[in-house]
Structure formats: structure tokens, C-alpha cells
Amino acid sequence: MAGATDNTLNIWCLMDGKAGHQNQVLGCAEAIQRKTAAQIHAVELSGWNRGVWSIFRTDKPSLPDVPPDLIIGAGHASHVPLCTLRRRFGGLSVVLMKPSLPLACFDICLVPDVHRLKRVPHNVILTKGVLNRVLPGTDKIATAGLLLVGGPSSHYRWSDEKVLQQVTQVLIRQPDMNWTIATSRRTPETFCRAVENVTMATLIRPDDVGSDWLPAQLSTAATVWVSEDSVSMTYEALTSGSQVGILELQRHRSNRVTDCIDTLVEANLVSRWSKWHQSGHLSRPAARFCEAERCATELLSRFRCERIVSRAA
User: Fold this and answer.
1) CA geometry: angle 121, 125, 129, nearest 5 deg
2) The pairing of beta strand 243-247 with beta strand 141-149
3) What residues make up the domain containing 299?
């Protein structure tokens, strides 16, 4: 296999310009780096090496100057480049989420379990949701509370009134908490104004803070509420080690996105607002939830097995 002679892994991370995909890729690579000596190299997928164009042109000057041990990508634009780069430069191809190409095209596939594969091939590792860069917090503050609010989406019917009612009840029933409400770029301005008028919580808008603000808040907040449309944020809050509640929304229809929330509720990892409203308690996971760390351990195990086989051949 390709790779450095000093036993340092070289990880090529394919960056397609989409924050959600890049968050997953870096979450996986950084988890590997925490477990072993590794160098992370970003490979930007621009016009010429994006999608099927990568078959015809892969300029070496724009690529890292060391061969890859692992090539990691997420999102449709990375699928063909993953295969092309792996064929030209070696290493193992690792795709995150269920790819548009057949699973057999990749060495390792990290596929969310909500896809409910009829058969799990040997090259598939099932994950609980998608990976992220959040680390489990070790300095939780019992009185620190965070409410993460999304907005209209293709999966849920948004209601200012319904979300505001739930947020208000959370604040009223836990008055000793220091609450911060963080909105997203999808959050309607009407909701933001209503929150400012009826609550004393601190309101944070996306342009008020930098990219490192939310991870820092998640590392210390003991309790986090997330609106149901923000699935990735739900997994990040859960990974941080916080108790997580779900602010409920009406669904347009059931699909894999809504199944993610259902799976977490059924596993008693998060609590819906309606259940909390009745019991007054949020679920607390029995064990630490960190899928990036678990998957990194499995990836390293498979990589080492592959390297042993290659050396023996």
C-alpha cells in the first residue's frame, strides 16, 4: 500500500465546498489523527476534478506531494474522484454516507443505519447518523443551557408559534438555567423578533459569532434543545455529551431524515419535547456517543489488516 515510511498515515480529505460534507470528512480524519500519527491533506474539488471530470484530468501539482494511505470523501461530487484518485495513487477509498455509485466501488463505506440495507457487505460500517468534528465535553456547566433553532426545510413544516411555545415552556420550567438561543440562517426573522419580545434568554444570530462559537458552547452546555429539522446539529449535541431534547415540528412525510430522529428517540438517546413536558426529565445516554471515534477505531483496524495482507502478497 501507499504511504509514508515513518508509519505516519497520510489522509487525503476531499473537500467539495459543502460545509456539511466537509464537516463529516474532517470529523473522520481528525478522529483517526487522535488515535495515531497522521497527516491530513485537503484536496479541493473544483471544476476540473469534481464528479466525472476527474476521470479525464487529475493534475498532480494541485494534489498533496505524498501518496495517500486513506482517501476520504462525502457527497455526490466526491464519488468518482474517490475512485479515480485511489486507482492512480493507491491507498484505501473511504466514502461517507450511502454513495450514488455501487458500494463495491469503494474500499470502505460508512453508511448511516437509517438506510436499512437489506444486506451489509463486508466493506460497510454502519453508523448512527453522520459523523462530525465535535468532541465529548469534559467541563460541562450544570446551569448552562443551549437552544438551537433551525427553520423551514423540505422535511418539516415550520411554525413560529409552535416552536416559540416549546421554547417558552423550557425557559419557564428551568428558570435557574442560563439559556442561550442560537438561530440559523434558515430561521425566520419573525421568530427571532418574537423570541426577543417574550424571553430573557440571550439570542445569538449566525452573523454574531464565528465558526468556533458553537463547538465551544456545546463543550460546556449540560442541556441542549434542538429543533427537529436540524438533524446534524442533534448528532453534534449528542456527541458533546449533553442531555438533548427535541423541539417538535410537523413532518411533511416520513423519510430517512425523519428516521434519524426516530432512531435516536427509540434508543433513548434524546427526548421529544412532548415527553419531557409530561415527565420533566431528559434522557441521558448510558454510554458516551462518539461515532467518529468508533469509526476511526474500525477504520484503523481494517487499514492495518489490509497493509499486512499487502506486505504478505
Assistant:
1) 130
2) unpaired
3) 9-132+291-312
Q: Grid coordinates standing for 203?
A: 439570542
243 and 192 within one domain: yes
Cell numbers of 38, please? 497522521
C-alpha cell at position 235: 448528532
In a domain, 158, yes or no: yes
CA distance 133 to 22: 10
Q: How far apart are CA 91 and CA 303, in angstroms?
A: 9
Task: Give the tens place of pLDDT for each residue, 181-206.
Answer: 999 999 999 999 999 988 789 999 99
Q: What are phi and psi of 72, to 5 degrees?
A: -115, 135
| Cell 493507491, residue located | 90
Compute the distance between CA of residue 43 and CA of residue 94 in angstroms, rounded to an integer: 14
Residues 273 and 220 in one domain: yes
Per-residue pLDDT, averaged over 25-35, amounts to: 97
